[in-house]
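*Target chain*
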Amino acid sequence: MTQSSVLDAYLDDVLKFGAEAVLPSNLSDSWLAYLCQQAPVSDTNDPLFTSMVASVIAILSAENGGAEVEIREDELNTCLAIYRTELTLEKVRRSRGKRSEPVTIQSIFRKPLVMGLCCP
């Protein structure tokens, strides 16, 4: 698949269904594996990085009642780190057959993490 076709597929398969669809527990195994790959930092030409940013923005917008989101770069990077962590945790949960309370739109960027990260 070309880079643009990967991004188009993510938009069609996941993002068009809204913020709930991008939560780690709601992703298909294939999209979870894709998003768990190491994304280049701030490479807007990379479909993986763009998919991650689009997912974070969708969640932040839903968290704010669908309003347009303005976010500083450092805040976005923090949210991306949290999202990556939650993606990895979901991958581990699935591989071990463990089910725990999945994060929600309201909790994903607010729940305390071991790293002490929280989005503003």
User: Anything to note?
Assistant: The chain has a mean pLDDT of 85.
